[in-house]
Structures are given as structure tokens and as C-alpha cells.
Design a protein that fits this description.
Layout lengths: L4 H28 L16 E15 L3 E15 L4 E12 L18 E12 L6 E9 L6 E10 L7 E10 L10 E14 L2 E14 L2 E17 L3 E12 L2 E13 L4 E10 L14 H4 L5 E11 L3 E12 L12 E10 L6 E11 L3 E12 L3 E15 L4 E18 L2 E11 L4 E12 L1
Antiparallel strand pairs: 1-2, 1-22, 2-3, 3-4, 4-5, 5-6, 6-7, 7-8, 8-9, 9-10, 10-11, 11-12, 12-13, 13-14, 14-15, 15-16, 16-17, 17-18, 18-19, 19-20, 20-21, 21-22
Length: about 450
């Protein structure tokens, strides 16, 4: 009998395990290798652990027909062995919901049974060795893969010797969904990748990812293949970059993206453009391919183009651009997936007035309406204190976590920041949001301490 896809995936995970163990063994051999086989040992260092990081406390209050108050504590901690054998990093948040907010203000804290909600974003250990580029164990975020994945497991990367720089890597573990209040249904995530430097500045990378998920009483298994090409040209005063990405899901084309940018420091201008096309509907797939379809429904194919350019002079800066989005089939247009065009131009006066002034003009054209709007920002930075105030407009403002789309949104804000010491910072932000259905206030107070 032919094995099921789940059994095949678990078999592949077991097949990858010896690869990871081989890397660990290579690390041990590197530390025990004779002097003739290993690079010269570094000068002895004092034993101990070096610690650094940030602590940030935040209060957030929202006020409308009812109030919602939340407290957050974020810790970002790095540790390093003074002898250079390992390093570690932890990023975690503690959140406390002070009340039961009204439905219009509900967030993730209002979906759990307890007002106290700890979240561990990452906690991993890196082992240093000349035999491999990286060996990482723990909760980690895979950023270079075709999809960003939070993984509880092991990832490893080798740099084989050869005429061209190459990288080979693999990872295996359990996928973690930070937006879910329970780990029930979390399932294996595994994959491999290979990268090759083709020529100066040109890098080609191929990825394969296997994703499993169990939620809403259903099982999901998906295989994603990604191919990416990155070309960079860097000179003394300029940098040009071209990126091409394509993914295939279950053997069928999923999407493709083109990004290009250029920065000229001597002439003081820059330009960037991007094009993205979703080729197949996204719905009823394994997370993170499909994290929101249970609340936002199926995301149908669309095309989106964006371009902008900036030019700076001694006291003036101009930025202009356009964004264009089209749903591939007009019948699929709906909430969270709309046709629109946006054209914008921002003028900023720099060190020409006692305060810095930026003015933005926008033209919005959607399937429902067409109009012009504006935005403005005033700011001033002192030795230890800075402030800014202004307003901006959003034709559609999305809150993916609550499943809310607000239309015709005008936001007014005030930002204040105070730095009593280089590693201490207080900040306060007030927002007034006026949308088509409601008006509410939000206050956010932060204190950050670095060490």
C-alpha cells in the first residue's frame, strides 16, 4: 500500500534528523580536532556570559462607547558566551487585559479565557563552529523561506567548499501560530533549501517546505516550492537591486513577485517599484499559507503594482508614487479584496523652518468612489525630547486580527518622546480615529530600558 502524505512527511522528518545530528557531531569534532586540522585557537578569554537587551512596558487604552485597557511587557534579551562558543536570544511578551472591552474594540486578549496572556516569539540557542554556518535549536522565525514560519525545532545550514559560494540548509519541528490561544492542532513543519552565488552580486535560492495543520476539525497538508533570484550592484555612491520570487503550491503556480530599487547617494535620489500577482485562490490551506480565511474568507487572485521615487535637496524633499490593485476576476471583488488606485506626493521642508513640515496630497480611485485627500506632519527634535503631530487618511484600514475593515478613515495623532539617558526612553502617542461608522480615541504610553 502506498504511504499517506502524512506518513511520507513524517518519514522525511526522520530522514532529516540524521542530517541535523551530523551537523551537531561536526560541531563537536571541530572543537576536538587536532591543531593541524582546525584554525588557530583564539586567545583565552575570561569565562562568563555577556548579557544585553531591552525591556519595554506599554499601556494601551481605547475609548469609544465603552473602554478597553491593556498592559504589555516586552523583553528582548541576548546572551553570549564570552569564549565565543554559543549565543542565545529570547523575545517574549506578557499581556494583561484590564477589562472586557466592547465588541468594537476587541483584540486578541479578548478571545482567551484568561486576562493574562504570555507569548514567546522566539527563544533559541546558536552553537558556533567552523564546520557549519549555523546550528539553531529552539523557537525561531524562518524569514528567508518563501513564507515566514515560527518553528519549534532545529535548523541547520552548511557552507560547502567549492569554486562558488553555496549554502545548504534544512529545518524540522512543529509550527507555532502566535495568533492562536491554544497549541492544539500544531503540526510538523519541515523543509530544505539550497543557495548558490552565480556571479558577483547574483544569488539563486531554491526552497521546499512541507506544512501540516489541524484546525477547525480538519487536517491540512501542503507542499510549497519557492525559487528566488537576487541581483545587487553596489558602487561607492549607488546601489541597485533586482529581486524575483516565484512559488508553486502542490505543483501549481501560486504567485510571483518582482522588486527593483536604486539609491544614488551623490545625486540624492532613490526609486523603487514592485509587482505582485496572486495566481490561485488562498483558502482552506495549512497555516501560515492560510491564517485568516476562517474570518476573512477566501483571498482571490489579484495583481498589485507600486512605484515611488524620492529626490532630496538641501532644504527640500519630494516623494511621489502610485499604487494600483486589480482583482483578476471582477466577480471576486469584495471586502478585504478590492480594486483601487492611489497616487500620492509628499513635500517635506528640512531645516528651513523652526519645525520640520511634511504635506501629502493623495488621489484615491476605487470601484465605489473617487476623491482627493491630504495628510500633514509637524515635528521637532531637541537634545532629549522630540514631538510630532499630524493627520493621515486611509480609504480602507484593516485589522486582520479582529476581522475588521474600516472605511473612509481619518486619523489624527500626537507623538511625544523623552530620552533622559541614551538607553532610556519614554513615549506617548494619542490617536483620534474618525471612520464611516464610529469615532474613538486611543492612548499608548511606552517606557523602554536598555542594558
Amino acid at each position: 500500500m502506498r504511504p499517506s502524505r502524512r506518513e511520507a512527511a513524517r518519514g522525511l522528518a526522520l530522514a532529516l534528523a540524521p542530517f541535523a545530528l551530523t551537523l551537531a557531531q561536526a560541531a563537536q569534532e571541530a572543537s576536538e580536532a587536532p591543531a593541524s586540522e582546525a584554525p588557530p585557537a583564539p586567545a583565552p578569554q575570561a569565562p562568563g556570559i555577556e548579557l544585553s537587551g531591552w525591556l519595554r512596558s506599554r499601556y494601551r487604552g481605547q475609548f469609544a462607547d465603552g473602554d478597553d485597557h491593556d498592559l504589555y511587557e516586552l523583553i528582548d534579551l541576548q546572551a553570549k558566551d564570552a569564549a565565543g562558543r554559543w549565543s542565545a536570544s529570547v523575545l517574549a511578551r506578557l499581556a494583561y487585559d484590564l477589562d472586557d472591552g466592547p465588541p468594537s474594540l476587541d483584540g486578541l486578549l479578548d478571545t482567551t479565557d484568561s486576562p493574562f496572556e504570555p507569548q514567546l516569539y522566539h527563544a533559541y540557542l546558536d552553537w558556533e563552529s567552523s564546520r557549519f554556518e549555523r546550528l539553531r535549536l529552539g523557537r525561531q522565525t524562518l524569514l528567508d523561506t518563501p513564507l515566514t514560519v515560527v518553528l519549534d525545532g532545529l535548523s541547520a545550514e552548511l557552507t560547502p567548499r567549492g569554486p562558488r559560494d553555496a549554502k545548504l540548509g534544512a529545518y524540522v519541528g512543529v509550527g507555532e501560530h502566535l495568533y492562536e490561544s491554544s497549541d492544539d492542532g500544531d503540526a510538523p513543519v519541515l523543509g530544505t533549501y539550497a543557495g548558490l552565488d552565480l556571479w558577483t552580486g547574483g544569488v539563486l535560492r531554491a526552497d521546499w517546505m512541507h506544512l501540516e495543520d489541524l484546525r477547525l476539525g480538519s487536517e491540512f497538508e501542503d507542499d510549497l516550492f519557492g525559487l528566488a533570484f537576487d541581483q545587487g550592484l553596489t558602487f561607492d555612491e549607488s546601489d541597485t537591486r533586482l529581486e524575483l520570487d516565484h512559488t508553486r503550491l502542490e505543483g501549481e503556480r501560486r504567485d510571483w513577485t518582482v522588486r527593483a530599487s536604486h539609491v544614488d547617494l551623490e545625486a540624492r535620489w532613490s526609486a523603487r517599484a514592485s509587482y505582485h500577482e496572486l495566481l490561485r485562490a488562498q483558502g482552506a490551506l495549512a497555516a501560515p499559507l492560510d491564517p485568516f480565511s476562517s474570518t476573512l474568507f477566501t483571498l482571490f487572485p489579484y495583481r498589485q503594482l507600486g512605484a515611488s521615487a524620492t529626490k532630496d535637496w538641501s532644504h527640500l524633499s519630494l516623494t511621489g508614487g502610485a499604487d494600483l490593485r486589480r482583482v483578476s476576476d471582477e466577480a471576486d471583488e469584495g471586502t478585504y479584496n478590492r480594486d483601487f488606485e492611489r497616487y500620492h506626493l509628499t513635500t517635506a521642508l528640512i531645516e528651513a523652518l523652526p519645525v520640520e513640515l511634511a504635506l501629502t496630497g493623495e488621489v484615491w480611485d476605487s470601484s465605489d468612489t473617487e476623491f482627493s485627500t491630504w495628510g500633514a506632519n509637524l515635528s521637532r527634535e531637541h537634545e532629549r525630547f522630540e514631538w510630532s503631530l499630524g493627520s493621515y487618511y486611509s480609504l480602507y484600514k484593516y485589522d486582520l486580527l479582529t476581522g475588521d475593515e474600516r472605511d473612509d478613515v481619518r486619523t489624527y495623532y500626537v507623538d511625544l518622546a523623552f530620552r533622559p539617558e541614551p538607553l532610556r526612553r519614554w513615549s506617548l502617542r494619542y490617536e483620534l480615529e474618525d471612520n464611516a461608522f464610529d469615532l474613538f480615541h486611543q492612548v499608548r504610553l511606552d517606557y523602554a530600558w536598555g542594558f
